[in-house]
Amino acid sequence: MRPIARPARRALSEGRRGRVGRVVGFSGMGGRRVGEALLVTEDGEEHGSLLGPLGRPLLDEPLPAGGSALFDLVLGDEEAVSAGLACGGRAQVLVSDLGAVPAEAWAALVAGEPVALVSRLSEPGTLAVLDQPAGRRRAVVGSLGQAATDEAAVEMAVAALRAGRDSVRVLTDEPLGPAVLEVLMPATTLHVLGTGELVDALAAQAALLGWSFASHSSYGQEMATALGSLARADALVVLSHDHDIATPALAAGLRAGCYVGALGSRHTQEERRRRLEAAGLAPEALGRLHGPVGLDLGARSPEETALAIAAEILAVRAGRLGESLSATSGPING
């Protein structure tokens, strides 16, 4: 949704109508992205993509007046590969009128702010919860038609936003269902405090994942300001072993609620926790400090260590343990 937010906002401001389709679930498809989106305006403009050319016809299907509909798209391997996909599978595609998504939600997406959308499927109604970390403010726009339903939607949306990652849930039970809850987080910014080859390796790993990257050699006013606007989608990795530098940075990250990791021996980690406790950090916050940082991949080089750290960030945000997929039985995507 975020890649099409700017043209969607412009079309709305110009009074043009259109349709928005986005993938809200899939199995197979060779690891396509949930959230892949396509905007089609009434005058023929198209922005984004939706399962190659295969999702485009869904935007011409009938919709509830002013509302949204959920479609299943099942593709065989031959059809999928001919359209440029890795393999066949099943996708759930949510299609909405452009105007069903509140203009304030499109503006927040353009601004890079977290947004949660709840779209009713049985009747018109979309509600958006806008989370603005810099000002620590929250706004609710739109409605699902009833105050009690809106209250339940806001509670569920706020809880989903607190997880700090993109997510989609298809809701079937009352009071909201049938509906779809989408959480659209801004791109992660990985902040690293320290110097050395591992900083460069982490920068390269962040680039592969589409994350922004910021490195800091010391904890000064510039870094304090940057950490003051941390969002839950962000991450902080402290490489410095200087406790006078590391402690205030770790404290800021833990208070922000984002992923926080620290390099160093187990003895160093014990000293870090002691200093953070003395600085007033609660046990719950200390329990979220990942130190030594990274998954146990047997990493040795800076590049391997950067991979282990990035993998742990992803696993923590997804609520996973970082196990081998062959040893688990749950969903393999997201």
Task: Give an account of the 3D structure.
The chain has 334 residues and is of the alpha/beta class. It has three domains: 2-100, no CATH class; 113-184, no CATH class; 189-318, NAD(P)-binding Rossmann-like Domain (Rossmann fold, 3-Layer(aba) Sandwich), CATH 3.40.50.720. The chain contains ten helices and 15 strands. It has helices at residues 5-13, 77-82, 103-110, 147-162, 197-209, 221-228, 243-256, 266-278, 283-286, 302-318, and strands spanning 18-28, 37-41, 46-48, 68-75, 89-97, 115-120, 126-132, 137-143, 167-171, 179-184, 189-193, 212-216, 235-238, 259-262, 289-290. A five-stranded antiparallel beta sheet has the order 3-2-1-5-4. Strand 1 (18-28) and strand 2 (37-41) form a beta hairpin. Helix 1 crosses helix 3 (103-110), helix 5 packs across helix 10 (302-318) and helix 6 (221-228) packs parallel to helix 7 (243-256). The chain is globular and about 65 Å long. 40% of the residues are buried.
Main sheet overview = 5 strands, antiparallel
Low-confidence stretches: none
Number of helices: 10
SSE arrangement, N to C: HEEEEHEHEEEHEEEHEHEHEHHEH
Number of strands: 15
- Sum up the overall morphology in one term: globular
Annotated CATH homologous superfamily of the largest domain = NAD(P)-binding Rossmann-like Domain
Number of domains: 3
Name of the level-1 CATH class of the largest domain: Alpha Beta
Strand content: 25-35%
C-alpha Rg (nearest Å): 22 Å
> Structural class given helices, strands, pairing?
alpha/beta
Beginning-to-end CA distance, first to last residue: 17 Å
The CATH topology assignment of the largest domain is: Rossmann fold
* Strand order, largest beta sheet: 3-2-1-5-4
**Which architecture of the largest domain does the CATH hierarchy give at level 2?**
3-Layer(aba) Sandwich
Q: Into which percent range does the helicity of residues fall? A: 25-40%
